[in-house]
Amino acid sequence: MTLALGCIADDYTGASDLANTLTRAGLRTVQTIGVPADDLALPEVDAVVVSLKSRSIEPGLAVSRSRAAEKWLRGRSASHVLFKICSTFDSTDAGNIGPVMDALRADCGEAVVLVTPAFPETGRTVYQGNLFVGAVPLNESPLKDHPLNPMHDSNLVRVLTRQSRTQVGLVDLATVTRGADAVRARLAELAGKGIGAAVIDAVFDRDLETISLVAAEHRLSVGASGIGLGLARALVSTGKVKPASASSDAGAVVGGPAACLAGSCSQATLQQIANAERAMPVLHLDPEQIVAGTSETERALAWARPRLADGPVLIASSATPEAVAAVQARHGRDAAGHAIEQAMADIAEGLAGAGVRRLVVAGGETSGAVVDRLKIPGFLVGVEIAPGVPVLRAVGAEKGGMLLALKSGNFGGPAFFTDALRLMR
Ligand SMILES: Nc1ncnc2c1ncn2[C@@H]1O[C@H](COP(=O)(O)OP(=O)(O)OP(=O)(O)O)[C@@H](O)[C@H]1O
Ligand SMILES: O=C(O)[C@@H](O)C(=O)CO
C-alpha cells in the first residue's frame, strides 16, 4: 500500500470526521482503530486515518501511541502526516497536542510545523491566532464547560506554548491572503528564529487551500478537517491522487434493531436528545448509580431489550454543565468520565448481544470506549449524515458489516439521531 496521506486522529469521532472529509474530496480513505494488525485486510486506498483515543490520556502514552501510528504510516510511504486534533483544540495545559506535535516533529525532522484547527464548514475559524466557535471566541463558547477539557483561552499561540517545548509563532490572515509564497516566506522567517510551530489563521476554505499547498510540501501538519480538506484538494489538484467518486450509498442494507448511545454533554447533543424524545423511547441513566458501581447497566439493558423489536431506542448519560460539575465534584473528573464511558461500553456490548447491528454514538470518548469494546478494527466511509459525521461500515471478521455513526459532541443538527437512523438501513 502506498499512501498519499497519512493521518493520526486523537479520537474516534474526529477520525471519522476527517475520513468523511477526505472521502468527499475524492481520496479513497479507510479509518482504522489503532495501528492495524498485520492480518487486517485493507482495501487499496489513498489515505489511512489511524484513530487513537489519545486526547485525554496521560501525555507520555499519547506520545508513544502517536509515534507508533506515525511509524506505520511512514512505512506505507506517507510523505505527509496530518495529526488530526479537535476543531475546538480540546486539550489541557499538560497536553496532549503539544507533546505529540513535539514528538512527531522530532521524528520527521520538520523545522516548523503548521497548526490550524480551522474548519469553516462547522463554524471554526482562526483570526490573529484566536479560535472562534461560530460568532464567539473559544473561551466564551460551550467548550468552556467541556467535562474533560474545558477551554478557557481562545489564543492558540498561548495555549500551544503552554503545552509544547518549542516556541510557537503566528502566520496571520494578511499573510495567508497574499498567497502560498507569502506563507512560505513567513514560515522560513519563523524557522530562522528557531520557532518550531506556527499557528495559522484561516477564515474561509480558500485560506485552507493556500495553507495546504504549503503544508503538502512539509512532512507534518496539525489541524482539524479543514486542513484535511485543503490537503486532499492539493493532492488532487497537483495530480498526486486521481479523484475517486464518493460512494452514494452506505452499501448493503443491514437491517435489524437499531440503538443510540449518548455520552456527550455538549449543548448540541443535549438538544438532539430532547428532539429524539419525540421520535423514540429515551432512557436517561443515573450517573451517580454508574459511578457507585450499581446495576445501572443491567437496568438499561433490561429496559432496552423488549423495546428493540418496535424500533430504535436511545440511552443517554448526558447532563447539563451544572449536573456534570456536581458529579465531578463528588467523584473526580476522570473517575466519573471513565466510569460512565465503561458503562456505555457495557451497554453497547449488551445491545450488540441483543442483535443491534446499527448503532449511533454521540461523543468522542464515549465512541472510543464503545468501539474498543466491540473490537471493531476499522471502518469504510459511507454517506454523510451531517457535516463531519458519516455512516461507517465496520470491517473485520467479527462485527464486519455493522453500521455505526460516531458523532462528535458538537456536530449535527437538532434531528441528528433520526437523520442518522434514516440513512443507516
Ligand atoms: N452525566 C455525566 N456526568 C459526568 N460526566 C459525564 C456524564 N455523562 C457523560 N460524561 C462523561 O463526559 C465525557 C464526554 O466526552 P465525549 O468525548 O464522549 O463527548 P464530547 O466531548 O461532547 O464529544 P467530542 O469529544 O466528540 O467533542 C465522557 O468522559 C463521559 O463519560
Ligand atoms: O474536529 C472536530 O471538531 C471533531 O472532529 C472532533 O474531533 C470532536 O471530537
TrEMBL record:
<feature type="domain" description="Four-carbon acid sugar kinase nucleotide binding">
    <location>
        <begin position="260"/>
        <end position="417"/>
    </location>
</feature>
<dbReference type="InterPro" id="IPR037051">
    <property type="entry name" value="4-carb_acid_sugar_kinase_N_sf"/>
</dbReference>
<dbReference type="GO" id="GO:0016301">
    <property type="term" value="F:kinase activity"/>
</dbReference>
<feature type="domain" description="Four-carbon acid sugar kinase N-terminal">
    <location>
        <begin position="5"/>
        <end position="229"/>
    </location>
</feature>
<keyword id="KW-0418">Kinase</keyword>
<dbReference type="InterPro" id="IPR042213">
    <property type="entry name" value="NBD_C_sf"/>
</dbReference>
<dbReference type="GO" id="GO:0005524">
    <property type="term" value="F:ATP binding"/>
</dbReference>
<dbReference type="InterPro" id="IPR010737">
    <property type="entry name" value="4-carb_acid_sugar_kinase_N"/>
</dbReference>
<keyword id="KW-0547">Nucleotide-binding</keyword>
<keyword id="KW-0808">Transferase</keyword>
<protein>
    <recommendedName>
        <fullName>3-oxo-tetronate kinase</fullName>
        <ecNumber>2.7.1.217</ecNumber>
    </recommendedName>
</protein>
<keyword id="KW-0119">Carbohydrate metabolism</keyword>
<comment type="similarity">
    <text>Belongs to the four-carbon acid sugar kinase family.</text>
</comment>
<dbReference type="InterPro" id="IPR031475">
    <property type="entry name" value="NBD_C"/>
</dbReference>
<dbReference type="InterPro" id="IPR050007">
    <property type="entry name" value="OtnK"/>
</dbReference>
<comment type="function">
    <text>Catalyzes the ATP-dependent phosphorylation of 3-oxo-tetronate to 3-oxo-tetronate 4-phosphate.</text>
</comment>
<keyword id="KW-0067">ATP-binding</keyword>
<dbReference type="Pfam" id="PF17042">
    <property type="entry name" value="NBD_C"/>
</dbReference>
<dbReference type="Pfam" id="PF07005">
    <property type="entry name" value="SBD_N"/>
</dbReference>
